[in-house]
# Entry
Amino acid sequence: MKKDITPSSKSVARALGVSVATISRVLTRPDLVNEKTRERVLRGIERLGYRPNLAARDLRRGQTGTILVVVPQAGVFFLDVLRGVEQAADEHGFTVLLANTRGDLNRQRTHFDHVMSHRADGVILLTGQLPTVPTASQNRLPLVVAVEPVPSSNVSAVTVDHAEGAEQATQHLIALGHRRIAHIAGPDNVFSAGTRLAGYRKALRTARIAADECLVQRGLFSVESGAKAMQSLLRQRRVPTAVFCANDQMAIGAIGALRAVGLRVPADMSVVGFDDLELAEVYAPALTTIHIPRFDAGYQAMMILVDIISRTRPARSLTLSTRLVIRATTAPPPNR
# Structure
């Protein structure tokens, strides 16, 4: 029986009258090859049955072709970020693996060990916490932080202006005429939660509205914690007319707690969320919220990581803006 022999890159290049480097560029960086040559090479590759040895290619360039995206939990918030990462990764020939730490820094440290032992090429970190690794190793680690900032760190990052978003949300409620505005904040150990709280307070100061710390309740970024925080607010002698929640899930929980006691949104109380999950648009009533460009954050984080790995550009950081999305859960305060 005649043995099937897969053609080599050299034989394909010779048959097509191009260089081996051109074959490589068409497969890895097609944007560097003119359209006519690219199409001719791709047709020739298909006709000749050429299959590049991707594992050997990656081994030669000292890469595995794999990127780890480390998340604190496998929640819906991270899906759009992951889509952005995968889009940029596909454009540069990388495969993306998702690593869920479940809030455990030891698990996160294990994922980082994979990169430092050359079983992955880099990390995109979404947890907001760096594991304890030797400084020298950390400095060599191809790493980009996305969405959730890491305080006091020089690591490359694509973050969101959380304070700006919180200020926009609170200003919207103030512009509607609300003066007693509550805030359901995130956990005090999450940096972005503190930043959003700071943005809420800044908006109150700017409008010369006295801050009442009784109006600040802590949640855990969950629906259940949002409901419990709202129940605490409703027990106060002077109930707020509006509440800004540090994420959409807590806003949904807060609305549920209001409905449970017969209060209407926004007729009796206005509610604003943060994140702009798909749920916010389809929920009834549709949730007014702050949009985070999650896809863009993931895409830009991967592009920066590619530059770090390939050393084509210096490491850098970006801060993306948020925007207010006004829907059906906010209105002027009721007459009381």
In short: The chain has 13 helices and twelve strands.
